[in-house]
Amino acid sequence: MSHASPNANSVLELAHGEAMLLAESDLGLRKPIIRALGRLGFTLLVAETGLSAVELFRTHHSKISLVLWDLAMTELCSPEMLTALRRLSPNVPVILSGHSDEVHAHRRYSSDQGYIYLVKPYEWRDLRAAVARYLDPAAKETPAQSAKAESALPAALRNKSIVFPNRAVAPSVLTKS
Amino acid sequence: MSVPFNIAIVDDDASVALALCRLMHSAGFEAGGFHSAAEFMASVAERLPDCLILDVQMPGRNGLDLQEDLLARGFDFPIVFITAYDDEEAVRRANFHGAAGFLRKPVASGVLIQTIRRAIESKAGKKTQ
After folding, report:
1. pLDDT averaged per 10 residues, chain A (length 177)
2. Residue B33 near residue B56 (C-beta atoms within 8 A)
3. Which are the contacts of B12, defined by CB distance < 8 A and separation ≥ 6?
4. Distance between A85 CA and the closest CA of chain B, angstroms
């Protein structure tokens, strides 16, 4: 087993588990995410820019089962990059993270609603819950958790159902408790 | 008569751990000091604290490592970090893993006690939701 490096394009070879693309521009957040997801057994492909993330996805998309995407990634706007991902792998689940204004804007204008949104600053338990939704479709937030997550959002973001590729689920915007 | 909250303190500096224990007693808490992450891990399951005061910089497993070890083992009591250094990365790592507080030494006793009370109350509030 190799150890996680927070640098761009590093690949974490972990003992077993699914491959995940982590595209996060914030080093201070990327490092603890790498450590935490590594403990879960993910094989992580890590990018710190949008272009490098797309390139990693282009090379490894057949093996990638989940994407965590920072809406603040630079170089290309997020919709363009996400469109590129969808072209390569139409059904790959994507978790989008960003500050509330970024999430608000993306959710309002994105035509593709197959995303879970994580509102920054989020904690490890929020990320773990979002990941669990993909790993185990039966895993659901408690009503209290869902209500709390929704109430933390601007009114325009509340009560919007998200339809996953091949999977319909309840509203699932997660935020720091 | 209510049972006082139990506060655990992990600090490799024995004098700091003792001073914090005394402060906790004066605030009406029960308190126990530990001098390393390993020492605390060896006994945590015997008596779960209501809150942990945790030094960041320690030999061996540091406070941030201990926080992650505890989470990985399913312990979710609140943790208040204290540190002598300005380290933004440490703050973000601790907060990502759900730290209840991150205080800079020297910590004003009133601030520490207030932070602990809030952390315990917040945890209790989450349990009742």
Report:
1. 36 56 92 88 89 91 92 73 85 91 85 82 90 66 42 37 30 40
2. no
3. B35, B36, B55, B58, B59
4. 27
Do B98 and A121 make contact, defined as CB atoms within 8 angstroms?
no
**DSSP letter string, A134-177:** HH-TT----HHHHHHHHHTS-GGGTT--EEETTEEE---EEE--
pTM of the model: 0.75
Nearest in space to A86 (alpha carbons), one of A104, A70, A101, A64: A64
For B96, the closest of A39, A124, A177 (CB atoms) is A124
Q: Which stretches of chain B are assigned E, i.e. beta strand?
A: 6-10, 30-34, 51-55, 79-83, 101-104
- In this structure, which amino acid lies at residue B84? A
Distance of CA A34 to the CA centre of its chain: 13
Closest CA to A127 of A90, A147, A97, A150: A97
Interface size, chain A vs chain B, as Cβ–Cβ contacts under 8 Å: 32
